[in-house]
Amino acid sequence: MTAVRHTLVFAVLLVVIVGFGYIASLPQNLKLIVLMVAAGLVGFAWVRPRWTIYAWMALSASLWQIWHQNISARLSIHSATALMLGLMLLVKWASNRKWPRIEIWEFMWPLFAIVCMLSAAREVVLISQSPLFLFRYLFLPFVFYLFGREYLANWNEFRILALISVCVGIIMAGIGYYEYTTGHYLWYTTTETAYVNMAFGPYNDPARYGLMQVIAFFMAAFLFRNLKRTAPGFRGKRVFLVLAMVLTAYSSLLSSERALMLAFAVAVAVNLFYLQRRLIAVGMAGVVILIIMFNLELTIDESFIEHKMNVSDASVKRRVAQYISALRIFKEEPLFGVGYRYFSNPRRVDEFVSNFGGVSSRGKLIHNSLLDILASNGLVAFVPYLIFLIALFVVLRRSVGLTRDGPFHTLALTGFVIFIAQQVLNQAFVSVYSEELNTVTFLIFGSVIGNYHRVQAEEAQAKFDGDVMESRALEDLGESAVNPVPDRSAQGNEAV
């Protein structure tokens, strides 16, 4: 009966999805459908908060562009969900009078976001670079972190999140292959030949698309590691997850981003190292070295810095020139920097923008998150950002070492390697301001750290209970030594 019921539920869901897709394909019903989804998310946020995040995880990627075109360009589907979840959390905490314990290092990210917003207010060139948009990009994703720590601090909930991520990754793998082979982008209109043979995905960016697929790959690996041989359908699930890992890994490489390939290789090497696959990890480290050596062929020299600033800004040389310029900016403006997206102003002409190609699409930022923050916002933003990264790395690393086996170990390792991949990508491609990546990764990090705190509390409680039992046993032993129990048999012999 259970199999029949599951089959019927699956059939009903399939009919609903197909009908929804057909209705959404009609232009006159598009906005109505999006509004219905938004209304559904509002209702779910109050009644079933976990199901809200599951629905967001499943639909946000495909609905992002539809929402942007038909609902609001200033309030994305991610920020709208974050506002709903944040309001729900505040109401819950206020009604229960039990506020969450937030560590000092966790406060560093909101502080970093506020400093960047103040920096953006100094000079707004484009509306997408205003403090309001930085509130979306940096501050609201922290709500997903708090939600993950509060509601997904359980292995079963994380498993559901991983399964949804894998399913979305498989769909996006097909879309990425279509974009890569045809040069026709479903969400992005371009005629430039430079973008041919690159997969963009729903967020109109190959690096973001690639990292999303990397996340789906490690989620599939997490599910694969926790399969039980005695579970029903073990072989079918195993084949499905292997195919998912192959498809998501292959589709991530279709982004054609060298920085993403490097991030993926480093994360896989770290993952294999902690899974006691040391020999394979060394092989992946070799792949990383080969990627680095390939890029060293484009080594910069002094003549390039001084005389050849018109070289294509997609090259490694251009980026190294930007790094050198960022350090010069830091020497001039160490405390507050020159302002967020200082290089985006096409009317600006000074010595700082000589390495950024004016209004070039790839010249609006420094292609390194640490250097971009240091030059744009100064030490007041760089210090809290760096403290948050170091502390998050330490906590995730400790969570991996807390247990060496069991489901929590693979859960913590999944969050840790995703963090590694994101930070490696950040040092060659600025994704720190990516709202789409921040929401997903913060949700995962919050879930891992919530599980870490839960396991710590359980171990502390178990240790406390053990200490109590041991102390009671010692007390009973002491009482028996002071007041020995009389020998009944000896008393009986004396009486006889």
Description:
- With about 500 residues, this protein is an all-alpha fold.
- The chain is about 70% helix and about 0% strand.
- Helix 9 runs antiparallel to helix 10 (about 235-255), helix 14 (about 315-330) packs parallel to helix 15 and helix 16 packs antiparallel against helix 17 (about 405-425).
- The longest helix has about 50 residues, at about 435-480.
- The radius of gyration is 27 Å and the shape is globular.
- The N and C termini lie far apart (about 75 Å).
- The model is unreliable at about 295-315 and about 355-365 (pLDDT under 50).
Summarize this structure as a short list of keywords or feature phrases.
mainly alpha; single chain; 496 residues; globular
* Mean pLDDT over the residues: 75
Counting H and I runs of at least 4 residues, what is the number of helices?
A: 19
Pairing-aware structural class of the strands and helices? mainly alpha
Helix content: over 70%
Poorly predicted residue ranges: 294-314, 357-363
Tell me the distance between the termini.
74 Å
Could you state the order of secondary-structure elements as H and E? HHHHHHHHHHHHHHHHHHH
Q: Mind telling me the C-alpha Rg? A: 27 Å
Number of strands: 0
Main sheet summary: none
Amount of beta strand: under 5%
Outline, from the CA principal axes?
globular
